[in-house]
Design goal:
The protein is an alpha/beta fold. The protein is built from 14 helices and eight strands.
Length: 317
Amino acid sequence: MVMPLEFEKNIAELESKLNGLRHFSGGDGINIAKEVGRLEKKLDRLMHAKYEKLSPWEKVQVARHPERPHCLDFLKGLFDHFEELAGDRTFGEDKALIGGIGRLDDQAVMVLGLEKGHDTESRLKHNFGMPKPEGYRKARRLMHMADHFDLPLITFVDTSGAHPGLEAEERGQAEAIARSIEAMMNLKVPTIVVVTGEGGSGGAIAIAIGNEVIMLEHAIYSVVSPEGCASILWRTADKKQDAAAAQKFTAQDLEKLKVIDTIVPEPLGGAHRNPSQTLASVKKAIKTALEKMADKSGTELLNDRREKFLAMGKIGL
């Protein structure tokens, strides 16, 4: 059974009742199948009613669900013959950012992604998806490699932000992020960004300069977390729901603002309830984006990307 979120109390109770009935052997003249069917229809109505009107804070919870597909799930599910490439050739390896070469059907591609981990052991291994400077320098190295070998670049974004520790600052965190943004902006290959969960701050934008920016339906993408925003504006994280409502960081908000290009629908109840369906939808969106850019020259791709980001935030005079 999927771990319920705090706003899914009624849904969880109904699911628990349904699971109990499905394991009930029957008897005493009770028509179990009929009752199960009735409850399934009720659950479907309840799920639709809830997920069609999620508040921004509820979307934050869905985007952070621990069972949501992460970078490694996308790498295993979408790409054949993936070969991981490690290290920044300067300091060391950073497991928060995974990168390498693989095949999307018959197309060779370079892939980068931020990996949070699913359990305590993997979260510690991947530093909760928060890269240090060596992670972004590795990303830049692989971006240059993609450009050199004319490989489309696909990135998967899911992070609360770059690592905020002292050692990261000592090794040049801000410079590493800025250089990664610069490198991605200057690529002459198709670049596709997929925001799969939480796109947080500079830690996300460092690998999110795409010709096509795709977001999952319940993902979020912002300059600061709701908790961080509330702490800055109201001096308390208790105002996180108010901050979430004001930030306009949902896929639907960002599509209207022309920050992203495509929203990928999620299965009812979120990507974590049907990961295979989610992966199939993301693959279709990526292939559609690649087809749109197939006939463009490197210079056209570079100019399109620059114009896209320069146009963000413009106000008509």
